[in-house]
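Researcher: Next sequence.
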Amino acid sequence: KESFYSQFAGKKDKITVVKNGADEDAGEINAVTGATISSKAVTSAVNKALEYYEVLKMTSSVFIPNGGDVG
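Model: Next structure:
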């Protein structure tokens, strides 16, 4: 659902899921109604991918587009 995954755009640090009333400045996103567990699983995977990305960015000699900016 685009309204869910678009909330991840520009996030670079620990993202948390709330049922409603997410504070974007605090890294929160709204869960999909009726799919809180799935929303949390996706968010956990995104957080892990961001962690790995940061490690690669710091340790890799491979070119990373945009200077590593994910936003």
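Model: Residues 51 and 66 are 18 Å apart (CA to CA). Helices lie at 2-5, 36-59.
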